[in-house]
Amino acid sequence: MIYLTIDIGTSSTKVCLFRPDGSLWLSRSASYPVNRPQPGWAEQDPRAWWQAASALCRALLAEAGNPPVRAVSLSGQAPLCVPIDRHGRPLRPAILWLDRRAAPQASWLKERLGEEEAVRLSGNLLDAYFGGVKWLWFRREEPELYARTWKIAQAQTYLAWHLTGQAVTDPSHAGMCSPCFNLQERRWDERICELMNLDLDRLPEIHPSTEIIGEITRQAAVETGLEAGIPVVCGGGDFACACLGAGALTPGQGALMLGTAGNLLVPALERTDPRLINTLHLTGERLSMGGVLAGEVITWVRGLFGNPPLEALEADTARIPRRVAGCRTGIEEERT
Known about the structure:
Layout: E1 2-8, E2 12-18, E3 24-31, E4 43-44, H1 46-63, E5 69-76, E6 82-84, E7 94-95, H2 103-112, H3 115-122, H4 131-141, H5 143-147, E8 151-153, H6 155-164, E9 168-169, H7 171-174, E10 181-182, E11 187-188, H8 190-195, E12 205-206, E13 212-215, H9 218-224, E14 231-237, H10 238-245, E15 255-258, E16 261-267, E17 277-280, E18 286-293, H11 295-304, H12 310-318
Parallel strand pairs: 1-5, 5-14, 9-12
Antiparallel strand pairs: 1-2, 2-3, 4-7, 6-8, 10-11, 13-14, 15-16, 16-18, 17-18
GO molecular function: kinase activity
Protein name: Carbohydrate kinase FGGY N-terminal domain-containing protein
Pfam families: FGGY_N
């Protein structure tokens, strides 16, 4: 028996097969672009995630000789705004964590809620990065679509619905949706959602990361090649799963995750620094992280020069005199 994992990343979807001892057996990935229809915006078509995930599952299972799969687990990029209808269809492109359009909504929340109160409840400062602030932009700027929305999903939620018919999330994802998630009480905050005119029933139910949330449906079996009835585990944010995989579970340990962003992740005590990003680990305890753009910067630089092969870009970079090495600038309004 083996285990299959699906990760919906910013630049690609990855599907892996793991042996019972936890060692990696096989993996495949498929990439897709980040679309930027306006300055400061970053979007993706959620349908591309499912197309990639289902095709990768079929290909990987065939390559492995269709071994019996004991369980499936999920992870994904966060925080996002992915409104879906009752049939799981996305109502607009996903608003990604990179997206900065909700800066005016962050300013409004600072005036109406106050940064100190936001930190007390959610553990985080008010910024366009966080999921709840993006949701407020969506609620105000696209009210017709909001009225048609069944759930405001994360990538993990969207994937879970396609596999099991359940639109749920876990605490690590929910914690990234400040200020809507109460980090003290581990739940959606009714008072904050009321202030933002967000309906609680449009937010996904929060389940423990280790909980079985459903089984592979017949339709999902047809599309993925997985057998119907295989249990699906909720999983968590890609950052929290990376932290777990690196063995960082308790305070005093840490993990470095490099992808589209570079994150230093530290399991935390109850008191956390609001200048960091604060959420919950897969263990249910606090998890703090600091991040900067990593792979996304390479993509940006390649675009400036006509998207040359990475090998050519590396060769050109190697010829830069050492005296200018170390210079950097902020990308996507990043703190420096």
